[in-house]
Design a protein that fits this description.
The structure is a single chain. This protein has 305 residues and is mostly helical. The chain folds into two domains: 8-207, Up-down Bundle (Alpha-lytic protease prodomain-like); 217-298, Alpha-Beta Plaits (2-Layer Sandwich). The protein is built from nine helices and three strands. It has a three-stranded mixed β-sheet with strand order 1-2-3, with helices on one face. α8 (259-277) links the parallel β2 and β3. α1 runs antiparallel to α2 (41-67). The longest helix is centred in the middle third of the chain and has 30 residues, at 146-175. It starts with 13 loop residues before the first helix and ends in a 7-residue tail after the last helix.
Length: 305
Amino acid sequence: MSAGHDHGTEQMSDGRLVWAVIANVGLTVAQIVGGILSGSLALIADALHNFSDAASLGIALFARKLGRRDADQLMTFGYAKAELVAALINLTSLLIIGFYLLIEAFNRFISPEPVAGWTVIIVAGIALAVDIVTAVLVYAGTRNSLNMKAAFLHNVSDALASVGVIIAGILIILYDFYVADLIITVIIAGYVIYQGLSLMPKTIRYLMDAVPDDVEFSEIKTAIEKNEGVDGLHHIHIWSISEHKRALEAHIVPQLLDIERFEAIKSELREMLERRFHIEHATFEACADKGCGSKASAHRTDYSA
């Protein structure tokens, strides 16, 4: 269970992201030119990955700004989930790029082309330096944000890809081992796909309003039922408003049908939920028995059985 909510994204200025985007756009252009001149598929693969870095950082920046907007009549819970949508877009792009590189490597293996090793090494060396700088700029925001973590993963994988491209260039120069370019491309693609799949399930669960990973549904249910004023509990729902804000709604059967006592019970439960489970938004409806509620609530799953 999380001990608190230190929002790491607030430790990083948007200016860092802007510079990271600019650096990656410039690097993409340089790598594409270098890849065409040298005939290196691995270098072009790295360029495409860098372009996805620039796009992912741009999306992350936009999502951060949008996520800070206050709630309104359209988005009554606010816009915080924009960062999760951005994370999903970035992770999806990782998968698309990964599979595209695998296909290109296969095609190049069937029809091999010569590769200029020194051009590959020089351009990949510059790329590695830019990737490291960009990763440092973005790292401050990764601690508590899937959005920034997805963007950071783009950069880390690109730095590793640049190292692989340099190795391929060295092998080509020393041993005329041109297939090294294709092997490195396949390794880059495999790692990119692995990264995309690693964070995708968690991001989708957040967007589908699943119970947060670090929250035990049964533990929360038991904690509410232990309150002396609660005689029954049903129609309980727990979800994430954003990556760091949780919400709960439930029907409770109070022992005494007294308005003042019920308000006191709600206050006790809300304080307990925020202290123990970091649930900041809790809504309770009083019911005289387990079958009470509106027609809408009758269609909800009853988890108390």
